[in-house]
Amino acid sequence: MTAEVNVWPQYSATAVSDGGAVETAIITTGGIDTTPNQQRVLITGIVALTPGTAATDVVIKVRRGTGVTGVEVGTLTTQVGTAGAPRVIPYHVEDVPGEVAGEVYSVTVAETAATANGTVSVVTCSVTTHG
User: Fold this and answer.
1) b/e burial code for range 86-103 (CB count within 10 A of at least 16 → b)
2) pLDDT in tens, 96-119
């Protein structure tokens, strides 16, 4: 038996202020539906940003729901770098929410030790459901 695969539209945003040291949602997907044969959700993308003043690490999380209060999905992505240096950070997580209708996911970013907000020049998010 071949597993069903469904590729949802890619989501993207540009020129988003990221909140510096405060975790901030930078993009939210549209509603995702799964069936009994498609209960795994793969969320991938990139975040291109210039961190705020003094930021050393950039932490990317994917959460169920809108904003920063939803359940964290998968393992967070942390990238260490030089304060203020532009970065392109890929992320990749898999969720197993079971059968859902209209589930949304938010990608968030926070900068360790930032004393000013950074700027996300581009964020992309692709969602695929599969068995």
Assistant:
1) ebebebebebebeebeeb
2) 998 899 999 999 999 988 888 889
Nearest of 51, 48, 25 to residue 109 by alpha carbon: 25
Nearest to residue 13, comparing CAs of 3, 24, 28, 1? 28
Give CA–CA dist 120/27, Å, rounded.
11
Q: What is the pLDDT of residue 4?
A: 62
Answer yes or no: are the C-beta atoms of 43 and 126 closer than 8 Å: yes
pLDDT in tens, 21-48: 899 999 999 999 888 877 889 999 999 9
The two structure tokens encoding residue 82 = 């030089």
